[in-house]
Amino acid sequence: QVELQQSGPGLIEPSQTLSLTCTVSGGSITADDVWWTWIRQPPGKGLEWIGYIDNSGITTYRPSLESRISISRDTTKNTFTLQLSSATPEDAAVYYCARAISGPSYDYWGQGTPVTVSS
To answer: N- to C-terminal Cα distance for the chain?
Structure first.
């Protein structure tokens, strides 16, 4: 059974960098045909795909966020991390990590981290 456990702050100040980590257990982040993904849901809105890192460490980002985001991984810890720089109140959302499989569809999700951007 794959489990994704998120960690990171729920409150950051404007202009700071949001950093969230997803720890994967029960499966390797280097496994074939899966994409380790970050998704967010702003208040009152639908899910918004942010980006992913694949089993080779190659990343793909949402174009509108590409200049501010970075997804990295630590294969020794089986984790992947989202960094979102220059945060604004518009970045407030519940952030999720998830495993995408071919489709794409998402078969495992983290518990979600509500993030507020406020001074």
So the answer is: 40
Upstream peptide bond of 104 is cis (omega within 30 degrees of 0): yes
Give the Å distances, CA to CA, from 106 to 12, 35, 85, 117.
28, 9, 26, 27
Per-residue pLDDT of the chain (119 residues; tens, 9 = 90+): 999 999 999 999 999 999 999 999 999 999 999 999 999 999 999 999 999 999 999 999 999 999 999 999 999 999 999 999 999 999 999 999 999 997 679 999 999 999 999 99
Whole-number Å distance between alpha carbons of 93 and 39: 10
